[in-house]
Design goal:
By secondary structure, the protein is mainly alpha-helical. It is built from 14 helices and 6 strands. Helix 4 crosses helix 6.
C-alpha cells in the first residue's frame, strides 16, 4: 500500500511525502517537490520489493530531518549551555523549512536553496541575514549532521560538506583614539553606575569581553599577584587576566569597600546576579559623542594598542584567548605601521649627520 501526502511549509512551499508499506518489509518513504516524481518513486519502489530487488533500508531513509533536529536539541544542546538558545532557534528554522524530508532526501542542492533563502530579505521584516549569521545557521545544522553520522549511525556522510558557506566580511576593527578614550573615560567616571568606570578600564587594559568581566568573582582574583582567573569564557576554557597599573589599583580600592554577601566583582542590587550596565554604557557613549562604537570595541581597542606597542600575533592570541591566529590577523597592519614608524625614526637618527654632510 502506498500513500502520497501533500504538505505545505510555513514559508508557502509545497512538497510531497510518499510512503510505501508492504507486509513483511520496513516502511519506505521519500520526499519530492513534484507529485509526478513521488508517483514514479512509489511505482519503482513497490516493483523492486515485489521482484526481490529490494535492498535493506538505510537509516537515512528511516528518519526525517525533523527527528534528527529534535533528538539533537534534546540530547546534545543541553551540553552546550552558552549556545543552546541561539542554536535551538537556528535549528528550528531548518526544521520549519525542510523538516519533513527524510535525511536521505536532504541533498546539498536542497540545503543550498535554504542558504540562499536566508540571504534574501525576509517577507515580514524586509531584512536579509548577513553572511556571518548564515554561516552560523549552517554550522548549527552541520554539527547536527556530524553527530547523526558519528554517534547515531543515521547517515553515512554529511551533505553539508558539499555546500559552500557565504564568505564572511573581514573582522571589524574600531578602536578609540587618545582623544576619544579620554572623553569616554571621563563620562564613565561621572556615571551614576558605581562600577561602569572600573569595568571599562578593565576592558581597555585586558581585552576581556563584557560577559567575562561581569561574571568575574572575588574568589578567582589574586590582587597580590595581579591575576584574575576567568572561568566563564566564550571558548569554555579558563584564562588569566593580568592586572596592572590603574586597573589593579581600582580593584584594590574596590576590595576595601566590597559587599561580603556576594562574590561578584560587580553585583546588581539583589546581589544574586551581576550588574546590568547597558543603560549606563549607552548614556556614556552618547555624552562622549562617540560614533559607531560598541562595548566589544573596547576589546578591539585593547588589541590595537597592544599591536601598536609591538605585541606579536602569538602574544595577542594569548591575551585575547583566541585558539588560532586567524582572529588576530585583523590587527597585523597596526603592528606593521608601528614597526615602520620605529624603523623610520631609527634611520632618521643614525643617518641624519651623514645625509646633512652629503647635502
Amino acid at each position: 500500500m502506498a500513500t502520497i501526502e501533500k504538505r505545505r511549509t510555513k514559508n508557502g512551499s509545497i512538497h510531497y511525502r510518499a510512503l510505501v508499506r508492504l507486509k513483511g518489509y520496513p516502511q519506505q518513504s521519500g520526499t519530492f517537490e513534484r507529485k509526478t516524481d513521488a508517483k514514479k518513486w512509489v511505482q519503482n519502489t513497490e516493483s523492486a520489493i515485489r521482484d526481490g530487488r529490494y535492498f535493506k533500508t538505510s537509516e537515512s531513509k528511516k528518519h526525517t530531518l525533523d527527528e534528527m533536529i529534535e533528538r539533537y536539541i534534546e540530547n546534545v544542546l543541553p551540553l552546550k549551555p552558552k549556545s543552546q538558545k541561539k542554536q535551538t532557534q537556528q535549528l528550528l528554522w531548518w526544521k520549519e523549512q525542510i523538516g519533513d524530508y527524510t535525511i536521505a532526501d536532504v541533498t546539498p542542492a536542497l540545503i543550498s536553496e535554504c542558504r540562499d533563502r536566508l540571504l534574501k530579505p525576509d517577507s515580514k521584516s524586509g531584512k536579509a541575514k548577513g553572511p556571518a549569521t548564515v554561516v552560523r545557521y549552517m554550522a548549527a545544522l552541520s554539527h547536527a549532521f556530524t553527530i547523526a553520522m558519528r554517534e547515531w549511525g543515521w547517515v553515512e556522510d554529511s551533505p553539508m560538506r558539499k555546500v559552500e558557506r557565504p564568505k564572511e566580511p573581514k573582522g571589524r576593527v574600531r578602536f578609540l583614539s587618545d582623544e576619544e578614550r579620554g572623553r569616554l573615560l571621563n563620562e564613565c567616571r561621572l556615571s551614576k553606575n558605581p562600577f561602569l568606570y572600573t569595568i571599562v578600564v578593565l576592558a581597555l587594559s585586558t581585552g576581556a569581553r563584557k560577559s567575562e568581566l561581569l561574571n568575574a568573582t572575588w574568589k578567582n582574583i589574586d590582587l597580590k599577584k595581579g591575576v584574575l582567573l576567568l572561568l566563564d569564557t566564550k571558548n569554555d576554557e579558563t584564562r588569566n587576566l593580568h592586572l596592572t597599573g590603574h586597573a589593579l589599583e581600582l580593584l584594590k580600592a574596590q576590595q576595601k569597600v566590597r559587599r561580603i554577601d556576594t562574590d561578584y566583582l560587580f553585583p546588581s542590587k539583589n546581589l544574586k546576579k551581576p550588574i546590568d550596565i547597558r543603560d549606563a554604557w549607552e548614556r556614556a557613549i552618547a555624552k562622549s559623542k562617540l560614533q559607531d562604537f560598541h562595548f566589544h570595541d573596547l576589546r578591539h581597542s585593547a588589541a590595537s594598542y597592544l599591536a601598536m606597542n609591538g605585541a606579536t600575533p602569538n602574544e595577542l592570541a594569548e591575551v585575547l584567548g583566541h585558539k588560532t591566529l586567524e582572529m588576530v590577523k585583523r590587527y597585523a597592519h597596526l603592528s606593521e605601521q608601528h614597526t615602520a614608524t620605529v624603523v623610520s625614526s631609527m634611520n632618521e637618527k643614525i643617518f641624519k649627520g651623514i645625509a646633512d654632510g652629503l647635502a
